[in-house]
Design a protein that fits this description.
By secondary structure, the chain is an alpha/beta fold. It is built from ten helices and eight strands. It is 33% helix and 13% strand.
Amino acid sequence: MADITEDSTEETVGDTAPGRRRRTVPGGESAPLRLFCFHHAGGSAWSFAGWGRRLGPEIEVVPVALPPRSVSAPGSAGSVSTMGDLVREVAQRLAPALEERPYAFYGHSMGSLVAHGVTQRQLAAGRRPPVAFVTGAHRAPHLPAPELTMDLSDTAALELLLGLGGTGRLLRENPGRMSAAVERLRQDLLVSASYRYPAAEHRPLPCPVHVLHGSQDPLVPTAHAAAWQHHAAGPFSLRVLPGGHFFHKEHKKLFFEELRRALGATGADHRRSPDHQSPLPQTPRRCDSRR
């Protein structure tokens, strides 16, 4: 039974926030599918609070707590300063859990790069791949990153967060939380900027790849989201949803409907065969857009 933080409803892989007690929650182990969730730049594992209730008992939601990022002060104990180091650390922490039963990945924004990197390490090691890979609000990894100013002032970083729709009134009204969120964003942008696509070592994903994209996303053009198809060896789909970079917060009902569809939420195939690697119906590799 995995550790989770006191007031979360999902299990959490990684470190618990300082000062929070750990507890365990019965259930979850019987769900046919585990969904590991990787958060956006400036976010945390708490970005996925409540997802378990929305996705239902067939899916066990496991938010991934990333190690501390410290590019401005490299060498800090327990921290990472490059995307390569981040992926390696996360892959090592997750490895035992990924061998237990079928699992899927969801990555949002920066989390998509982390999830893709962990999947690549699983494939390179000959380990069990995810049964589905779902990405939201991120370009395909082989495309160049948008030019964002990395040396952000607190004000500029906050404006970026607010402009993308990732924060709200509570952050504005709480200087402590605002400062922490701004610093996380700054460090995460620096870590993301260190990413280099390893073309020679890349392996197409053998599982279904599903892309969720906000029609008004200012950072990710639809064509860049659709380019994830180049990384799919099998079924692929693209769903264009209303909203911006954080469309999953703007239109929650629609988002969770699409996520359940992508995951094949009945879980019947997982119960039938623990080693089954493709729970979704085989569909043509084309982009299906819904506006």
